[in-house]
Amino acid sequence: MATSDLILHHYPNSPFSEKVRLILGAKGLAWRSVHIPVVMPKPDVVALTGGYRKTPFLQVGADIYCDSALIARLLEQRQPSPTLYPASLPLAPQFAQWADFHLFWCAAAWAMQPAGAVAMLGDAGPELLQHFAADRAAMTSGMKRMTLADAAVQLKTHLAALDAQLAQGGPYLFGAALSIADFAVAHCVWFIRKAAPVAHVLNPHPALLAWSDRMQAFGHATHDDLTSTEAIAIAASAPGHAATTVEPSLGFEAGQPVNVYATDYGCDPIAGTLVGLSAGEVVIRRTDERAGTVHVHFPRAGFQIKKEKLS
Ligand SMILES: N[C@@H](CCC(=O)N[C@@H](CS)C(=O)NCC(=O)O)C(=O)O
Question: What residue ranges do the domains of the chain occupy?
């Protein structure tokens, strides 16, 4: 197998990783796989991302792409077919944002109710379950988490709407054209299906289940394994970075020290020097003892940039 320069840092049970794995599958892009820890601490993750702790992220040499929405756009550049952004569906990315937040948190609260969590985390044991719960509580400390009662009623409403949409013929959510919206919903449904004891919530929705089978049939494309130490060494020895510029009139200047924050959860600041900015992306340069000089990329939507002194 030809070695790919696309390195996905992920873990098997991660829904947003499944979203990216299925996109890699649909596009037939070979990749390299680094398994990362499910909970903090994640020293090898932080060496590359500078503090972004969410899963997944994608590495290409010394460029680090955070957030599945941005990773999807990079993969689209690499392999435009099948497109994730058909011209006939201009609202697909906005719909995907809804699924990645609202549908995801309903699905997560439903799937991680005690019976589902035990099935998902399996042989983890009570200590690990507790550690997992404390880790996720810290990650979402600024956010109002859904109760199971909230999630149950909202999830059922969303699932019924998705099923009714697909029952119009599909084969994809918005008809003949596959789009990023399909992948953003697919990972939420996949997560519920993995939580087998509570997956019955999907049973009244045959069109949704058949579509989920179709999405999973894209598979994950060919990939081989890499250790996080090897991935860090690849960053350290990379010859340079992807070209990037700070566009004018967006409120910031190249070379400014900034902090970048996710605005929903996992909002830890990532400090660096601004080297790239557009309507779609913010890029900072930072240096790590082991990884060397890396460029960390974030989507502009869902992230805040603040001019601040480097700490
Ligand atoms: N907006 C992010 C969300 C990523 C996300 O929430 N991932 C979950 C796992 S699927 C996570 O980071 N959980 C905490 C962790 O893995 O440490 C994206 O689209 O990539």
Answer: 7-81+223-307, 92-216
Instruction: Compute the half-sphere exposure of residue 270: CA atoms within 13 Å on the CB side of its CA.
Output: 34
Is residue 305 a contact partner of residue 252, using CB atoms and an 8 Å limit?
Answer: yes
- Which ligand 1 atom sits nearest the alpha carbon of residue 54? 12
User: What spacing in Å lies between the alpha carbon of 200 and ligand 1's midpoint?
Assistant: 25
Ligand 1 centroid distance, CA of 106 (Å): 15
Lowest mean pLDDT among 39-48, 126-135, 222-231: 126-135
pTM over 0.85: yes
CATH architecture of 92-216: Up-down Bundle (1.20)
Task: Flag whether pLDDT at 124 surpasses 80.
Answer: no
Residue corresponding to tokens 């510029």: 245
The answer to whether the beta carbons of residues 278 and 247 sit under 8 Å apart is: yes
pLDDT over 70 (residue 310): no
Its CATH class, for the domain covering 7-81+223-307, is alpha beta
The answer to whether the peptide bond before residue 269 is cis (omega within 30 degrees of 0) is no
Cβ–ligand 1 contact at 14 (below 6 Å) = yes
Which carries the bigger pLDDT value, residue 120 or residue 6? 6
Ligand 1 in reach of 53 Cβ (< 6 A): yes
Show the 3-state SS of 186-203: HHHHHHHHHCHHHHHHHC
User: For residue 248, how far is its CA from the centre of ligand 1 (angstroms)?
Assistant: 31
